[in-house]
Design a protein that fits this description.
The chain is mainly alpha-helical and 290 residues long. It contains 14 helices and 2 strands. A two-stranded antiparallel ribbon has the order 1-2. The chain is globular. Keywords: Membrane, Transmembrane, Transmembrane helix.
Length: 290
């Protein structure tokens, strides 16, 4: 039985009584400390086992590993491009399944989302948006590579909104101008009626506009070689295969070059963006020139 004075002392020090009763027996006290540490208990202030080892280092290592994850870094650097790639992967997988089950349904699905003359007459807003999120079978790998090489760098340098504006301007503008040219060609008897419901989906117009902005905003000694390297194959393709797709690519490149006039990048693509905490002073700035 514990004496009264020892109980008073235990209450005054706010420590469990069994630790004080075992203090006269070192072996028993050591056993109690081992049992408490294994049970992960802290008796509180006063004599007794010390604080348990913390698990913060493991948590810090896990957080550091997540920061070093390439996928996490890509999401932080270019969320718009990564989200677009996710949507394209889902729609491409759906199209692959449909093509395997029913090829006629595959063609109908693509035509219903194409920016052809029939779609622009019936549902213009829908096809202008939906056509950018559907790809023809087998074109997802090269489109994903182009998104990573063109849209993602433009988003990192300019920001999500300007990058989205350039992409949308190239995609919508080129689609409408190509449709207008086809309509005039049909009235003049130069274009056949098969283009009315032709399949016209994909992201090539918007991506070429992004490529034109990146080339035109590079440093002076790289600017003209990059612009020439972009336009030369597009012109050759239009001469070799004069169809509406090749014409749309040239128009999209011109729209991208026109966007540079109104979206002047303070930091060229080949220049280093100042490092430091995120904020307005560290973000690229656009200045309109007219």
């Amino acid at each position: 039985m514990v004496p009264v004075d020892r109980m008073v002392t235990c209450r005054a020090t706010s420590a469990p009584p069994y630790l004080h009763s075992a203090s006269s027996h070192p072996q028993t006290a050591s056993y109690l400390q081992i049992a408490l540490s294994r049970a992960r208990l802290r008796p509180g202030p006063g004599p007794g086992p010390g604080p348990l080892p913390r698990t913060w280092p493991r948590v810090r290592r896990t957080a550091s590993a997540s920061r070093d994850d390439p996928l996490a870094r890509a999401w932080r650097a270019a969320p718009l491009a990564m989200a677009y790639l996710c949507v394209l992967s889902v729609t491409s997988a759906m199209l692959a399944v449909v093509h395997r089950l029913d090829q006629d349904a595959y063609q109908r699905l693509l035509r219903s989302r194409s920016t052809n003359l029939a779609g622009l007459r019936s549902r213009p807003l829908y096809v202008l948006v939906a056509s950018a999120f559907w790809l023809e079978r087998g074109t997802f790998p090269q489109t994903a590579a182009a998104v990573a090489a063109l849209l993602a760098p433009l988003e990192r340098v300019a920001g999500p909104r300007p990058a989205l504006g350039v992409f949308a301007s190239g995609h919508v503008g080129a689609s409408l101008l190509v449709a207008g040219g086809l309509l005039l060609g049909q009235r003049a008897g130069l274009v056949g009626g098969h283009v009315t419901d032709a399949v016209d989906v994909g992201a090539s117009y918007g991506l070429i506009a992004c490529a034109a902005v990146l080339a035109a905003t590079a440093r002076a000694h790289r600017r003209w070689p990059l612009v020439g390297g972009l336009l030369a194959p597009l012109v050759l393709a239009a001469v070799h295969t004069p169809d509406f797709t090749a014409a749309g690519h040239l128009i999209a490149a011109g729209i991208g070059l026109a966007c540079v006039r109104y979206l002047r990048l303070s930091y060229p693509l080949s220049g280093a963006i100042p490092s430091g905490p995120s904020g307005p002073a560290c973000q690229p700035r656009f200045t309109g020139s007219g």
